[in-house]
Amino acid sequence: MVVGLLVAPVAGCGEGPVSRVDLESALAVTFDHLYGMQQQRMGRPAAHDAGAGATCDKGGPTVADEGTGEDWACLVSFVSGDGAPHQVT
Question: Looking at the 3D structure of the chain, how many domains does it have?
Fold first, then answer.
């Protein structure tokens, strides 16, 4: 299992306020795309869909999950080309 820390500074991302739902969706799509590109560059079969999903929280349970800042923490889950599940936090 791959475990690390992903902190997402989201200052200036698009129009309007940044929400948890928008960030989770954007991370999952972006991760799937980048993972597929990485696998191709490493000479492995292209993973068209790693099935990535993301769960994000901003600043803990007492902070609203919206807005820009460096206090977003996200967990990205995906399945590698060999079918093994992984999580990166």
Answer: 1
